[in-house]
Amino acid sequence: MTTPAAQGLSRTELLALPATTDVETAGRAFGLGRTTAYALARSGEFPCAIVRAGRGYRVVTADLLRVLRLTPDNGDAAADAGPRAAA
């Protein structure tokens, strides 16, 4: 059985995120578990912008969406990420 933390986020869930989100949620968007996401944040290697807030971390949602190549009007970013054939 798959646990909720191990599941990724849907496009709708990603677009509904607030201006910043926690590292665990952002990690799920990349298919990362909690431990790996926090390890990357601590080492400065998380794949998008992180803001240090006191002892915690917040991920900038706009940068998360940029890295995932996802905007409200572009449909499925994964389908658009592949090479395009010449016309």
Q: Helical amount among residues, as a percent range?
A: 25-40%
Mean pLDDT: 83
- The SSE string, one letter per element, is HEHHEEHH
- Seen as an oligomer or otherwise, the chain set is single chain
Distance between the termini: 45 Å
What portion of the residues fall into strands of 2 or more residues? 5-15%
Largest sheet: 3 strands, antiparallel
Overall 3D shape: globular
Helix-strand category:
alpha+beta
Number of helices: 5
**Total number of beta strands:** 3
Radius of gyration over all CA atoms, rounded: 14 Å
Low-pLDDT ranges = 1-5, 79-87
> For the largest beta sheet, what order do the strands appear in spatially?
1-3-2
Model description:
There is one protein chain. This protein has about 90 residues and is α+β, with helices and mostly antiparallel strands. Helix content is about 40%, strand content about 15%. The chain contains five helices and three strands, in the order αβααββαα. A three-stranded antiparallel β-sheet has the order 1-3-2. Helix 2 packs across helix 3 (about 35-45). The N and C termini lie far apart (about 45 Å).
Give the topology, please:
Elements: H1 11-15, E1 20-22, H2 23-29, H3 34-43, E2 50-53, E3 56-60, H4 61-67, H5 77-80
Antiparallel strand pairs: 1-3, 2-3
Helix pairs in contact: 2-3
What are the defining features of this structure?
single chain, disordered C terminus, 87 residues, 3 strands, 5 helices, globular, disordered N terminus
Structure summary:
38% of the residues lie in helices and 14% in strands. It is α+β, with helices and mostly antiparallel strands.
